[in-house]
Amino acid sequence: MTTDQPGATVEARRWLAAAASPGRRSLLSAAGCQALETTFTVVQWTGLAWVAQYVLDGALPSWQSAGALFGGGLLAAGAAWNTARFQAAGRRRIAHVLRWRLVAGLLPAGRRHAEPDAATAAVATVELTDDIADFHAQSFPQRLSAPVSIALILVVTTLVEWPAAVILLLASLLIPLNMRLVGLFAKEGADAQAAAGARLAAVVLDSFRGLPTLRNIGALERRRAELARAGGDLNATTIAVVRRASLSGAVMDVVITFSIAANATYVGLSLLGYVRIGAAPGMTLFRGLLALLICPMYFQPMRAMAAAFHSRERALAAVPAVRRLLVEPASNSERVPPSGDRPTVVVDNVSLRFPAADEPTLNGVNLTVHAGRWTAVAGPSGAGKTTLLSLIAGVREPSGGSVRWLTPTGASAPRLGGCAWIGQQTVLLPGSIGDNIRIGRPDAGRADVERAVAAAGLAELVEGLPRGLDTPLGEDGWGLSTGEARRIAIARAFLSDAGLWVLDEPTAHLDADAEAQIIVALRNATRGRTVVVATHSTALAGSADILLGVADGAVHTVREATRV
């Protein structure tokens, strides 16, 4: 977002304002509590000034003055506690909804034809959502409660000692100019800091991904220097933001200090009898002390709003990156429970072109994947095998043509989540083997999990473990080989009871023996299911009923067996 795009800036502000909706109720409650806190604090300071007047007069404070002092203080503390509680609740809700939408956009979705940059996605999900939520939690209640608080203090000051209120009003004239300068300084710094943060995230992520390669080619020192430069740039931009915030805060402090000093001078000289304004009420300790006590409160909402300028510009800088990742899913791409019906998949004149590509990855593809049969897709890397699988599974929508699942109950477009997908890598989460298998169907009972274990050829392994299905996995638990982890994925898919299995290089990175075992496990687990598998493996391709080839964006039949 740049200043030469006023339309984009206005749109970003509208989007940012709308992002507060999930936490609006909590933040409205926080605004009400802030106004109550100001009211009770005024009551507290009124009680303190009242008690001081009694002490000066040599009398014991009345129960009303003591009650105002202590009661007002307790109520103000309670209101402040509730303000923080409601702000935190609103912040959590806004961040939760934003992250939920981001994750929905980052997961494969029907209208996404290109994968997002991983570093940008990570920064947006972890940091930028917090910037937006922090801004609303800070500014939304202040924006509503500040006018009420300022008006209340100004009215009380006017009733107590109106010349002090005039001094407050005169000092207020400098506040808008200071806040404008704060906004200009903050925007420039926020944009630079966001860019530096994204750059550092990208370098760190690339370094982790390519660490073995960097080590093998002797480029670790060069990458270390690049990391140091990226970190230094982020440090420099962060320090610049802090410096700007300190400068604008110093200007605000000067205004507040001047106002308090002017009021203190007026009150002191009036009490000594050196200053007397005819229309003003007579100065007493109660009036003067109360005016001085609530004077700083008059500027507190303004200081909070000035601080919010910095968080506002950080949030506005985050908006473009977040919005780019919020892809609305297509109507047929909602996650649904997998269906046990084994479908026939019909691909009718399908084409897919990625936005940045010169040529379509697939062009005019026509094929039929028959129900209950194994169909293998072979071809060189980059030919479009995985892309074809993603269209069949409903992960992507075609640029042209259509993909349909035909079952006894009728025809439907592919539904994301309606089939079982096994890729080259199996993600194992912290927990037991049973927990990892139940990802395929979280409500599955132990008997169902044991059947999935048997179907995937894991029974012997599980029986040999110290705690069976309850054996924990991970750094503090049991470790699995690549082939064993692949069997976990097969058990998950079996447990989901999907009628269509889509397999992307399920035997990649396995030796010949492990590959043969996985092929047997897959054939056993998918008995009666419709299976589409992309592979470079001769053994896996040879086990299929139909073998298709992909080249130059087209799909052709290489071999078709008669078995079913």
Describe this structure in words.
With 564 residues, the chain is an alpha/beta fold. The protein is built from 15 helices and twelve strands. Strands 6-9-10-3-11-12 form a six-stranded mixed β-sheet, with helices on both faces. α2 runs antiparallel to α3 (63-106) and α4 (118-172) runs parallel beside α7.
For the termini, the CA-CA separation is 58 Å
Number of helices: 15
Tally of structural domains:
2
* Poorly predicted ranges: 109-113, 329-337
Give me the Rg, rounded: 34 Å
Which CATH-level-2 architecture of the largest domain? Up-down Bundle
- CATH-defined fold name of the largest domain: ABC transporter transmembrane region fold
CATH superfamily of the largest domain: ABC transporter type 1, transmembrane domain
Task: Provide the CATH top-level class of the largest domain.
Answer: Mainly Alpha
Q: Assign the structural class, choosing from mainly alpha, mainly beta, alpha/beta, alpha+beta, or little secondary structure.
A: alpha/beta
Measured by DSSP, the beta-strand proportion falls in 5-15%
Oligomeric composition of the shown chains: single chain
Q: How confident overall, as mean pLDDT?
A: 79
* C-alpha geometry: elongated
Helical proportion, percent range: 55-70%
Largest sheet: 6 strands, mixed
Strand order in the largest sheet: 6-9-10-3-11-12
DSSP strand count: 12
Order of helices and strands: HHHHHHHHEEEHEEEEHHHEHEHEHEE
How do the helices and strands line up, and which of them pair or pack?
Blueprint lengths: L5 H13 L5 H33 L6 H44 L11 H55 L2 H35 L1 H6 L3 H53 L12 H41 L18 E9 L9 E8 L4 E5 L6 H9 L6 E8 L2 E3 L7 E3 L8 E2 H5 L8 H10 L3 H6 L7 E2 L8 H15 L3 E5 L7 H14 L4 E5 L3 H5 L3 E6 L2 E7 L4
Parallel strand pairs: 3-10, 3-11, 6-9, 9-10
Antiparallel strand pairs: 1-2, 1-4, 4-5, 7-8, 11-12
Helix pairs in contact: 1-8, 2-3, 2-4, 2-8, 3-4, 4-5, 4-7, 4-8, 5-7, 5-8, 7-8, 11-13, 13-14
